[in-house]
Amino acid sequence: MRSDEEALDTRLGTRLAELRARHGWSLGELAERSGVSRSTLSRAERAEISPTAAQLNRLCQVYGRTMSQLLSEVEAAPAPLVRAADQRTWQDPGSGFVRRSVSPPHAGLRGELVEGRLAPGADIAYDRPPVAGLEQHLWVLDGALEVTDADQVHHVDTGDCLRMRVFGPTRFRCAGPVETRYVLAVVRP
Questions:
Q1: Enclosing H/E stretch for 186
Q2: Fewer CB within 10 Å, N- or C-terminus of the chain?
Q3: pTM for the full model?
């Protein structure tokens, strides 16, 4: 399994370098635009590290993509059906956040489904949305989440669904003693 993760990191690094080159930016310029350090960007492009979810979110914002779109760009050609065993997972090495792309990836679609899992006490913060005005429907399957959208805090329990349009910072925190598992429906504006 580690070789699959390494291959994904390599393809992701290559894609990040391609996007930066397409815009004609140096590492320093991208660092300034994204708030991700030059050394982290360089190491991610060379697949020496796997960027965190917060770092990828910042890069997605600069490039005008959702995280699922960016990750789908480094995966095989899209299919109309993705079997559960073939759905890609990605783990944030910093927070332990586990993200599974449920929807078949396709750049032309505006909506996507993502399964998220947060361990007890896990906390992940995004300082900006990848795309301003992104619509999100968060449905908690197990556990509880504390979700902060800008300055508003929502406690979302098992079975609850929170809808938000994201224009500013967000934060997701596992609010209970057990892992929280949720579905996030993401719709581009």
A1: strand 180-187
A2: N
A3: 0.66
